[in-house]
């Protein structure tokens, strides 16, 4: 699938964040702290999950107790809790034909990879998952399932030769969590002294700029 990465980068790292860009999405779904937008661009149906915007989102980030799925393995509970209700709203709107791409930044990426796994082969065929600054969203079994069933890419913003620096979010939570997709590093550094602060590498706008 030939996918221009500037489109999911803009949708996930700019348009879905509050205030949501007017006209960027055909529909917006809100389930608890989970916000999802959908839109068709150049024949591709995008499902876009919003990153952390408020205290409810931070609490979900911190809800690291694992929940079990018989097929997928153990999943991050805070990311998973709103997805069944979101799917009930989303599935009737899914296209009958055409490629489907699921994307998100930060918490949105953690929810995106779980949502893509839940949708894939059950309600629709997910053609690609594009993750920006994705936290660890499940255990080894989940990562194995993703590797065997989804075409997914996960971007982490970090200095090329200093991987211990850069965005810390894709490195947490720690064991038994693991990255759902092997990281592809990009280099889009913050300016000035902010270069030395890991959290500054996490900013959504830096990820978007990497794909302009």
Helix proportion of residues, in percent? 25-40%
Query: What is the residue-averaged pLDDT?
Result: 92
CATH class: Alpha Beta
Number of DSSP-assigned strands: 9
Largest sheet: 7 strands, mixed
Strand content: 15-25%
CATH superfamily label: Alpha/Beta hydrolase fold, catalytic domain
What is the structural class? Answer: alpha/beta
Task: Catalogue the unreliable spans.
Answer: none
Going across the biggest sheet, name each strand in turn: 1-2-3-6-7-8-9
CATH architecture: 3-Layer(aba) Sandwich
DSSP summary: helix tally: 7
Q: Please write the string of helix (H) and strand (E) elements.
A: HEEEHEEHHEHEHEEH
N- to C-terminal separation? 20 Å
Number of domains: 1
Shape: globular
Radius of gyration: 16 Å
CATH topology grouping: Rossmann fold
């Amino acid at each position: 699938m030939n996918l221009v990465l500037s489109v999911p980068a803009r949708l996930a790292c700019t348009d879905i964040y509050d205030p949501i860009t007017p006209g960027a999405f055909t529909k917006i779904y809100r389930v608890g702290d989970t916000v999802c937008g959908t839109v068709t661009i150049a024949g591709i149906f995008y499902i876009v999950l919003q990153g952390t915007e408020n205290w409810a989102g931070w609490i979900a980030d911190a809800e690291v107790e694992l929940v079990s799925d018989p097929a997928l393995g153990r999943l991050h509970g805070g990311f998973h809790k709103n997805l069944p209700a979101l799917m009930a709203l989303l599935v009737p709107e899914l296209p009958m034909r055409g490629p489907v791409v699921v994307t998100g930044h930060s918490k949105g990426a953690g929810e995106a990879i779980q949502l893509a796994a839940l949708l894939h082969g059950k309600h629709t065929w997910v053609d690609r998952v594009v993750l920006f600054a994705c936290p660890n969203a499940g255990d080894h079994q989940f990562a194995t399932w993703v590797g065997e069933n989804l075409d997914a890419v996960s971007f982490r913003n970090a200095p090329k030769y200093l991987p211990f620096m850069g965005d810390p979010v894709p490195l947490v939570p720690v064991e038994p969590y693991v990255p759902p997709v092997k990281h592809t590093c990009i280099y889009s550094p913050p300016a000035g002294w902010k270069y030395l602060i890991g959290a500054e590498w996490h900013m959504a706008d830096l990820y978007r700029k990497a794909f302009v």
